[in-house]
Design goal:
Elements (H helix, E strand, L loop, with lengths): L17 H11 L4 E2 L2 H6 L13 E4 L3 H14 L3 E4 L16 E4 L6 E5 L4 E4 L5 H9 L3 E2 L12 H7 L6 H4 L6 E7 L5 E5 L11 H5 L8 E8 L1 E2 L3 E9 L2 H13 L6 E6 H7 L13 E9 L1 H17 L4 E4 L3 H21 L2 E8 L5 H6 L1 H8 L2 E7 L4 E8 L5 H17 L18 H4 L2 H14 L12
Parallel strand pairs: 2-4, 3-4
Antiparallel strand pairs: 1-2, 5-6, 6-10, 7-11, 8-9, 8-10, 12-14, 12-15, 13-14, 13-17, 16-18, 17-18
Helix pairs in contact: 1-3, 8-10, 13-14
Bound molecules: flavin-adenine dinucleotide (FAD).
């Protein structure tokens, strides 16, 4: 599948000799260099199944160090893999060809929060949750909310264009990045975008770098848009006999003009697996679970959540619970993470996919999964963001030897997604994990032009080689 002829191979890079390591340490400072073997192993993987082993880790504290490292990488021809918190699910931060891992985790300062202009300037290693808390203290809101928000970095979020449940109302990370400071693979430092809401001067390099998975430049500073913090939030839970009924409710809620800040669902398999953790009776016997959150002015959201409850009942919900207390609310969010943990614990083979289908076709898509399970010998646990069609498919099998068969099944599923007008990844990106599936979605012309863009930025292919293509 696809033409990988311009992919670099391990032999394409000069081995990182002791002399080269000494030159790097001299250029970036000894304090920034880590070559303890345990730490090298630790920083050689992310949250995916992939592993690599760097020969050196550079923990940068300034853009100057990043520049010095990349200049040397070009001169001595060794690969550099940028890394935030290493929570990526596709191997994006894994040093496929060894070389140097460039950790941005120590560049973790919030440089300013400008209430008047509703912007914040941050370094890339700031943890998403820390930023949310800091701006909330000023009455402001930074919406992007990947489920990993308590550990992932905003630099990693920008590099992967991360998103979460609030995407339905607030969009993805790229909707909040107004401008960037980035070090190009050549070692040059550029500033992109602006600090204003509008700006159309030249090509939009900001949004070319956002989502480029650390292959075009290293993000060393971000200018982020903020919005006023919503004064209140309320939640509704609906239990449905079938997933199609729950999806009917989703379509009705949206069709009647409501814009929730989250609409999350779980299918029957997930409920069997983690229903015991959900604080409601009858969950494990239900066919589908729907969680809807509305934020805004208290009186208004109260009326809205009641109206949404009525819609759910009209769409065959067997039980609707309005505004559970905050303890139950946080329990429900924790349960989502529990699905992946339990799946990982129970099954020797586990592959997470995060496809997106048009909202109106979620039920049709999910109802087609049992046939695929049967045909390819896998079991699929699906949950996700019903409001934007992004479904997390936790694909499992009882035996690792079934990998080839399961991968055939995944290819089939992805083809079905594309035939429905969807996309093969809504959040996690391509990295190493989904490279082979890229040609299913992108035309040869599109891949060619993207490879050419990569070469303009990085003619010697030293920055995060082997990712995406
Ligand atoms: C439990 C769990 C739940 C998750 N839920 C979600 C979710 O809901 N939504 C979602 O979108 N993702 C989710 N993810 C995936 C992951 O958290 C995101 O992709 C996140 O944005 C990665 O951030 P990070 O700091 O960990 O980056 P890393 O994993 O360190 O790196 C990710 C990619 O970004 C590049 N990169 C990192 N920092 C920089 C930088 N400063 N400059 C240039 N490139 C850089 C790396 O080279 C790599 O390609 C989840 C992961 C886990 C483990």
């Amino acid at each position: 599948m696809g033409n990988d002829s311009s992919l670099p191979s391990a032999g394409a890079y000069k081995p990182l000799t002791e002399e080269a390591i000494a030159r790097i340490c001299e250029a970036v400072g000894e304090d920034a260099c880590v070559n303890d073997s345990d730490e090298l192993r630790e920083l050689g993987h992310d949250a995916s199944e992939f592993n690599g082993l760097p020969l050196l880790v550079v923990e940068a504290v300034s853009a100057h160090q990043v520049q010095a490292l990349l200049r040397l990488a070009n001169a001595l021809h060794f690969p550099v893999t940028p890394r935030g918190s290493g929570t990526g699910l596709t191997g994006g931060a894994v040093p496929l060809f060894g070389g140097v891992v460039l950790s941005l985790a120590r560049m973790n300062r919030i440089l300013s929060i400008d209430r008047e202009n509703l912007i914040t300037v941050v370094q890339p290693g700031v943890i998403n949750m820390d930023l949310k808390k800091a701006v909330q203290r000023e009455g402001l809101f930074y919406p992007p909310d990947p489920a990993s928000l308590d550990t992932c970095s905003v630099g990693g979020n920008a590099a992967t264009n991360a998103a979460g449940p609030s995407c339905i109302k607030y969009g993805t990370t790229c909707d909040y990045v107004l401008g960037l400071e980035a070090v190009l693979p050549s070692g040059e430092l550029i500033r992109t975008g602006c600090r204003t809401r509008k700006g159309v001067v030249g090509y939009d390099l900001t949004h070319l770098l956002v989502g480029s998975e650390g292959t075009l430049g290293v993000i060393t500073e971000l200018v982020l848009r903020l919005i006023p913090h919503p004064p209140a939030v309320t939640t509704l839970v609906g239990l449905f006999p079938r997933l199609s009924a729950a999806m009917g409710a989703v379509a009705s809620v949206l069709g009647q003009g409501h814009i929730p800040c989250a609409m999350e669902f779980m299918d029957r398999h997930c409920l069997e697996l983690v229903g015991d953790c959900l604080p409601f009776e009858g969950v494990q016997e239900s066919g589908a679970f729907l969680l809807v959150e509305i934020d805004g002015v208290p009186d208004v959201i109260q009326r809205e959540i009641e109206a949404i409850g009525e819609i759910c009942l009209e769409c065959e919900a067997v039980n609707v619970l309005l505004a559970p207390d905050s303890h139950k609310r946080s329990q429900m969010w924790d349960v989502r993470k529990e699905v992946s943990l339990r799946v990982e614990r129970h099954f020797p083979l586990y592959i997470p996919e995060d496809i997106v289908v048009p909202i109106g076709r979620i039920a049709e898509f999910v109802e087609g999964l049992p046939e695929m399970e049967q045909r390819y010998g896998m079991k699929i646990y699906s949950f996700g963001h019903a409001g934007d069609g992004n479904i997390h498919l936790n694909i499992t099998a009882e035996d690792r030897r079934m990998l080839d068969r399961v991968e055939e099944g995944i290819t089939e599923i992805l083809k079905r997604v594309l035939a429905m007008g969807g996309t093969i990844s809504g959040e996690h990106g391509i990295g190493m994990a989904k490279r082979r599936y890229l040609p299913l979605e992108l035309s040869p012309e599109s891949i060619r032009i993207q490879r050419e863009i990569k070469k303009v930025f990085d003619p010697h292919l030293i920055l995060n080689p082997g990712k995406i293509f």
